[in-house]
Amino acid sequence: MAQLSGCRPGWEYATSLDTSPYAATWAELDPARHPFVWDDDEETRVSILIKARVPPVRSGHEGRWAGERRCVDQVTALFAERYGSWAQYWNWSPGEGDRDGGVVGVWCCGAHSVTTPDETTARVVAALLEWRDWLEELAERSRRPARPAERCRSARETPTRRAAASGTA
For the ranges 4-13, 112-121, 124-133, 139-148, which has the lowest average pLDDT? Predict the structure, then answer.
């Protein structure tokens, strides 16, 4: 099993976390290839499914966070099955979390982010939507034409340098 750094160094993780976001291809992540409809009905359905996976009592350090990790694994499997491969990275957090170095700021890790069923459900939904928004923004940016090199250079020049170049400084 993969071992990741973070809140629980050296502990083994379940196989759903073995796939690194760094190994994902754009074909697996591209929003154009993976339609995603999120409305009130979908939020209600998914929230019920998530809540059912949240442990009623935290297992905590003494329980090696087993309940919290199981919750994260089950939610990851649910999202991958329901939405496709892109959704399995919903918890790619920037710090030392389940998957380090990511962009999802509302999630840390199972040990810190899995709390009560209501709080956890809201946090998981927010993380999924934040991840999807980031993918859609990335796709939009990749569709925009690159700025001409000349404009990029002039934008970096300071007013002082422009004045010096024109002889007015």
Answer: 4-13
What lies within 8 Å, CB to CB, of 124 at 6+ separation is 50, 75, 90, 107
pLDDT, mean of residues 132-141: 96
pLDDT band at 52 (very low <50, low <70, confident <90, very high): very high
Per the CB < 8 A criterion, the answer to whether 77 and 93 are in contact is no
